[in-house]
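Record 1 of the preview.
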Amino acid sequence: MGKKVNHKVIVRLAENNANKRLTEHIVWLLAREPGVNTRPLVYLCIGSDRYTGDALGPLVGSYLEEHGVGNIYGSLDNPVHAGNLVDTIDEIAKKYNNPLIIAVDACLGKLGEVGNVEAWSGGIEAGIAVGNRLPCVGDVAVIGVVNTGGQMGYLDLHSTPLSIVVKLSKVISISLLAVHKCLRSSDAAACFAVPNGEIIRPT
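->
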């Protein structure tokens, strides 16, 4: 059984402030996690470049690596997919003490949802759209809806236009890089609006 999805935000690619909204919401989600300032932050970017629609995670992972972010699992050169996800989860658990995992993945949805980026408190159950049953993973989840989902599974991912995947990956990548820089800055506390001990949820 997967983790419960809480505090979801939906951001549209067409929004002028898409990156700002997504960044602020992810920071807010992380602020709610116990020990956010002491737990190692790990980015698990799930997917494979064998199917266009499934390349979102590896594109995000590669972008973060290229911009100096560490603790990345899943990139174009070293993808994390159905075949090695369980081993990767085990590797992360052995290497890090109580890590805070941000899981990123592509998703199939309804026609009106294509182009959405969604983020929530809770994990991702990768592979559901194509019939795979994999472990739920992540403390914070970020997904991009790359195409409509139907009975075709992998064919839906295979037929996804590269343009939508690249656009979604850029929004997610830029936001996660901003989150990372904020949390790792000398004034990390400034990332969180916490007057009187109350975390303010972004609008």
